Amino acid sequence: MALRLDDIDYFLAVAQHGQVRRAAAALGLSQPALTKGLQRLEKELGFPLFDRGARGMTLTPVAEQFRQRTQTLRASLGDAIKEAADLHLGAMGTLRVGVSPLYADRLFVPAFLQLHQQRPAARLRLMINLNDTLLAALRLGDLDLSINAIPRALPDDLQALPLMKDDLCMVVREGHPLLSRRRVRLQDLVDAQWMLPGPGVAARRGVEARLAEAGLPPPRVAVEVSNTASPLSRLLAHSDLVALMSEASLAGPGGQGFAPLPFAEARFTRAIGVVMRKNHVLSPLAMRFLEILREGAE
After folding, report:
1. Per-residue CA distances from 244 to 156, 171, 247, 266, 268 (Å)
2. End-to-end CA distance of the chain
């Protein structure tokens, strides 16, 4: 069996985009050339890769398994090619890190300052974004590791090193009408208006799931933020909105004037740590950065 590497790339692109047209545009390729590559790959494998329908192309069950394995292998091959090029050029290496905005200052900055003192020739590529985006980039091989909240259900191709605990809390401004009640319950949030990230973000899904478990309707989102609510703290301080804030943020300067809602369901237990791909050998530079992070958490 002689599989062509570009045909694997074509397959992964169509699996990601769901359409030949979008995949071809992303790769800068003509649709006929991409279609021919898919047909060539299916012929070599001996089984179809996609179910083709009016709404696009979906992976067959067998192809889904194939995609998971080839995506990991392709990322590893890309890393190997990059490492070889760095060695050829005499480069000290590039560290590719993702970090949640909440932990950039607290975890990433001190660790990288120490690494920079030890490895001044090293280069850094940094992605600051929310968990879901970081984990997607990590699984695609665009990051070496990511510093963020560890998902309760970690994908099988990822592994995590916990560094600290930082629960996520439902919060309101001090003096909020809810806090004047003798007892606050989850049911009291039915009429509340929220400031939350988009529906694709894990924190938003957590709120929706908690309300649904209690038989309550989804949150009434008045303000939807694309990243973090921290820059909009003034908005929260001068309104009756309910929002989410980490325990660490509440304890810091940015948490002044805010209070967590005082009932158990208003808190989401979270571990914060480093997430990496399984079966992926980190470069010596990435390994040293991981050691510094671990030492800083002890």
Report:
1. 28, 6, 10, 9, 10
2. 50
Question: Tokens 């929706």 label which residue?
Answer: 208
Find residue 53's DSSP bridge partners. Answer: 56
Task: Give 5-83's CATH code, choosing from 3.20.20.70, 1.10.10.10, 3.30.470.20, 3.10.450.50.
Answer: 1.10.10.10
| C-beta neighbour count of 245 within 10 angstroms | 23
The per-residue pLDDT for range 50-108, each reduced to its tens digit, is 988 877 788 999 999 899 888 888 877 877 776 666 555 544 578 999 999 889 999 99
For residue 107, count CB atoms less than 10 angstroms from its CB and return exposed for 0-12, middle for 13-18, buried for 19 or more.
buried
Q: Which run of H or of E encompasses 127?
A: strand 123-128
Domain extents in the chain: 5-83, 92-165+271-297, 168-268
pLDDT (tens digit, 9 = 90+) per residue, 109-162? Answer: 999 999 999 888 888 999 998 888 899 999 988 999 999 999 888 888 899 999
Question: Coil, strand or helix: which one is 87?
Answer: helix
Instruction: Say if CB 59 and CB 14 are below 8 A apart.
Output: no
Closest to 169 in 3D by CA, of 94, 274, 68, 244: 244
Which are the contacts of 83, defined by CB distance < 8 A and separation ≥ 6? 93, 283
Residue found under tokens 């949030």: 189
Residue 148 backbone zone (phi > 0: left; psi -120 to 50: alpha; other: beta): beta
